[in-house]
Amino acid sequence: MTNAVSATEAAPTTTYLKDYQKPDFLIEKTELTFNLYENFTAVTSNLTMVRAEGVEADKPLVLNGVDLVLESLAIDGTDLNQGAYEVGQETLTIKNVPSRFQLSCETRIEPQNNTSLEGLYKSRHMFCTQCEAEGFRKITYYLDRPDVLSEFTTTIIADKHSYPVLLSNGNLIKKGELNGVRHYATWHDPFKKPSYLFALVAGELVSVDDTFTTMSGRTIEIKLYVEEKDLDKCEHALVSLKKAMKWDEDVYGREYDLDIFMIVAVDDFNMGAMENKGLNIFNTSCVLANPEITTDAGFQRVEAVVAHEYFHNWSGNRVTCRDWFQLSLKEGFTVFRDAEFSADMGSRTVKRVEDVGVMRTLQFAEDAGPMSHPVRPASYMEISNFYTLTVYEKGAEVVRMIHTLLGKEDFRKGSDIYFSRHDGEAATIEDFVSAMEEGSGKDLSQFMHWYSQAGTPSVSVSDNYDADKHTYTLTFKQSVPSTPEATSDQKKPFQIPIALGLLGDEGEIPLVVEEQSQNSSRLVDSVLAITQPEQSVTFTQVNEKPVPVMLKNFSAPVKLEYSYSRADLLRIMAVENDGFCRWDASQQLALGVINDCIEKLQQGHSLEAADCDASLIEGYKAILANKDLDLAMVALMLQLPSQAYIAEQFDVIDVDAIYQARKFIGNQIAERLYHELLDSYKHLNSDESYSFNAQAVAKRSLKNTALHYLMKIDNEEVRKQCLAQYSAQNNMTDVSSALRNIVSSPSEALKEIKQQTLAAFYQKWQNEPLVVNLWLSIQATCDLPGTLDEVIKLTKSPVFDLQNPNKVRSLIGAFASQNSINFHIKTGEGYQFLSDQIIKLNLKNPQIAARLITPLTKWKRYDSDRQKLIKQQLERIKAEPKLSKDVFEVVDKSLSV
Ligand code: B3K
Ligand code: ZN
Fold first, then answer.
1. How many angstroms separate the CA atoms of 178 and 312, rounded?
2. Nearest to 419 by CA among 400, 441, 438, 398
3. How confident is the model at residue 135, as a pLDDT?
4. Residues 6+ apart with CB under 8 A from 11
5. Among residues 417, 478, 476, 409, which one has the least CA distance to residue 450?
6. Bridge partners of residue 560, in order along the sequence
7. Distances from the Cα of 749 to the Cα of 189, 398, 471, 714, 716, angstroms
8. Closest CA to 821 of 608, 661, 615
């Protein structure tokens, strides 16, 4: 029978939200049988299909299918002859079908050659699946869309020695031997689900088992499947899962539904993890952890991702998405849920500050670039390209704003309505927002613009203090930049919650809104919801000119513009209660100083000590001396704004000046606060054994922040400290931090040691891929000259594997996105290197190839020489004879701006 043409040859077409049509057919039951062999897999499907109500009888059945070899096709047991159906590039059309029938279909696939890691594929020796968004169509012909929900029964047959463990969604209902060599297992999932939540795993795995008792007293079996060598890295994920299960019961009243919850760890995975019903599949990097191999950031990631996938059981699985335009319905909401969970488990402020960091650098940049799209996009060519920071992170901020506007109780009422009303259904963002309106009695119609309008809004604030009347007026003006889908003037004003406070000499000034402005500007729990392009609020009984503190807890994903004096910022840093604003004040203070240096460099001057304003040194000194502050906060406030954040402040990014200025200020801080930093380092540097809790993480964070500054100074004592920290091999957080400093040190004294240390580190950890990945990324992000050559060398070494996404991200991704001074090397070799890799990956793994393009998409933001060089590379990629849809969309949109 026909072998469908590869998807990569299909001309990219655009899918529009406005064209959404309900499915013509439904699949009541899905029975699948997989016969797994080394050189092919035979898939048999039996689908109980019904024509949807109101659909004309002559409408053909159109199924999705990609890269499938069709072996047989039958309706109600009768084989179809060739004229009865048509196999297209990505479809199978059956012309005449009854209103209710049994469709049987046999296909052959080659998971062993599937390098896209989408559909059924092999990771090392294990078979596994990734079906979201449209991977199921690479397994069998199906209605591969999220609004077709079906009850699945899955039988897996495989060699019993190579694949002793056979898993799928739901409950195991049957298993047995077949002929002494092969065995089978049948799984049944009682919950109807769309195909994207289907999962299958077959491999030589062992499990770590646990149980959880739900709020209604049911005992859930928990199984974490890993390779035997990883058995010692499972505990943290299991603890995190049980915490997440409990948290979702406490905070959202959501209980787990199946009797078993399984997680499987795989090495080759395109993203972090996948929430398949009852059978989550995880990238090893997001589930395995122990102190010897995992940093604090790694522990946090595992906790967050385990929780995120678990929370999807309700926000995503029980209530799923009508179509992929609604992706943020599950992702934005679930990111908000996991962020709140992490905040409750660790330090709330630290979590918030980290998330805001991602928003203000990466998401704001995405929103200002050629791939900018609303939280609910209006169109896409390849949906895989829309698993973005906007859909996830901005989507979570939008849900957070609803939470802020409604308050905790009403938000919970809304989420209860949403979950119970749409349980077992495929819902839309409107359904979610309506439930929130109903739960709170509030009107969120203007709020909906957050879902349909792209671009980061700016809110500029001016103020006026009337000393005679004792009034203080704040005036807010909002604007949104033009983005690909709409110009600035076509956009409607947003409803923006601004949490605020006024600082007086004696602390917080009580907020009393003047009666006249109460109609338009009501303040609820210190939150002002602005709705107009320009809007003022006047406070009375203000007896001194206050310092306004705005956007507390980053209450809206906007750029807030208000010119604070350095003295105001120091004040906020010292006394403000809101942790985010306190941290942000330290960022704005440093940013101001760095910006002055950038300007000076751009005018051709060199920098001198006086350019590092004394206010910054004094501010940092005070933070280090402040005994009331949480150590994690101290560490965060001492960290200079990232290069990416500094870059975001400019229309034209001057890579060299930003790098030089930031480095100069870093060195000044190190020199001028040397004793304070060293004291702090020594005080915190203990050999106590590792524990993962907020306090211990905070200590290590501050200690390593101090070390990072100190290592900017070429000083023997510091070098010794750093080498001693490395040699102590106490935990991976400290070891990797020391290694990073050794590798990035320009000191001649470390030149040889550097190579020896890198070699010894690799020698020790070569059998731990996650540690090798860390080793790669430490080298890839080194800002010293010559790093590009090292990175190129590493891509050619046997350590590297272009087919493993974690390796690609650790080496190529880290280099291109976190090493701006080397990536943007003036010769253009960095761009060429990246494009070479993208071209190599284009057909092998289109999703990863498309992600790698991100740094090139921002080409318009650089100087004209760099613009030219980057554009050349984009054009080179576009000229490739066969381009995957994924790569085509990103390159095409980048070149169309
Ligand atoms: N839902 C998956 C992401 C799937 C990405 C497909 N390209 C993981 C998550 O967000 O939980
Ligand atoms: Zn998710």
1. 36
2. 438
3. 98
4. none
5. 478
6. 459
7. 62, 51, 62, 9, 9
8. 661
- CB-ligand 1 contact for 61 (6 Å cutoff): no
Distance in angstroms (rounded) separating the CA atoms of residues 680 and 751? 27
Greatest Cα pair distance, the chain, in angstroms, is 95
Phi, psi for 407 (deg, rounded to 5): 85, 160
Is the minimum distance from the CB of 275 to ligand 1 under 6 angstroms?
yes
Model confidence pTM above 0.85? yes
Work out the percent of the chain whose per-residue pLDDT is above 70: 99
* pLDDT at position 7 over 50: no
Reduce the secondary structure of 165-219 to three states and give it as a string: EEEECCEEEEEEECCCCEEEEEEEEEEEECHHHCCEEEECCEEEEEEEECCCCCE
Q: Which DSSP state fits 711? A: T
* Residue 2 pLDDT: 37
* Euclidean distance between CA atoms 594 and 602, whole angstroms: 12
The per-residue pLDDT for 687 is 84
HSE value, Cβ hemisphere, 13 Å, CA-based, for 796: 7
Amino acid at 30: T
Give dist(CA 140, CA 46) in Å, integer.
11
> Both tokens of residue 48?
């109980």
- Residue 280, phi then psi, degrees to nearest 5: -70, 140
Angstrom distance (rounded) from CA 485 to CA 637: 38
Mutate to test the pocket of ligand 1, among 144, 271, 393 (most ligand atoms within 8 A of CB): 271
The residues pairing with 721 across neighbouring beta strands, listed in sequence order, are: none
Residue 605 CA to ligand 1 center (angstroms) comes to: 49
| 658-697 residue pLDDT tens | 999 999 999 999 999 999 999 999 999 988 999 999 999 9
Whether omega before 133 lies within 30 degrees of 0, making that bond cis, reads yes
Is 880 noted as a catalytic residue in this protein?
A: no
Instruction: Evaluate: CB of 306 within 6 angstroms of ligand 1.
Output: no
Q: Is 687 helix (H, G, I), strand (E, B) or coil?
A: coil
pLDDT over threshold 80, residue 5: no
Q: Coil, strand or helix: which one is 462? A: strand
The answer, yes or no, to whether any atom of ligand 1 lies below 6 A from the CB of 271, is yes
Kindly state the average pLDDT of the residues 590-603. Answer: 98
Is pLDDT of 401 > 50?
yes
522 pLDDT above the threshold of 90: no
Q: What is the pLDDT of residue 60?
A: 98
Nearest one of 316, 298, 303, 327 to 394, comparing CA atoms: 327
What was the pLDDT predicted at 844?
98
Of all ligands present, the nearest one to the C-alpha of 132 is 1
Query: Residue 440's CB: how many other CB atoms inside 10 A?
Result: 18
CB neighbours of 485 closer than 8 A, spacing ≥ 6? 373, 374, 378, 454
Which residue blocks in 685-819 are alpha helix, DSSP H? 694-710, 716-728, 732-744, 751-765, 769-780, 787-796, 805-808, 814-818
Rg (the chain; Cα; Å): 28
Give residue 11's pLDDT.
61
Q: Going by DSSP bridges, is the β-strand pair 279-283/260-266 parallel, antiparallel, or unpaired?
A: parallel
Q: Is the pLDDT of residue 3 over 60?
A: no
pLDDT of 516 over the 90 cut: no
Ligand nearest to the CA of 271: 1
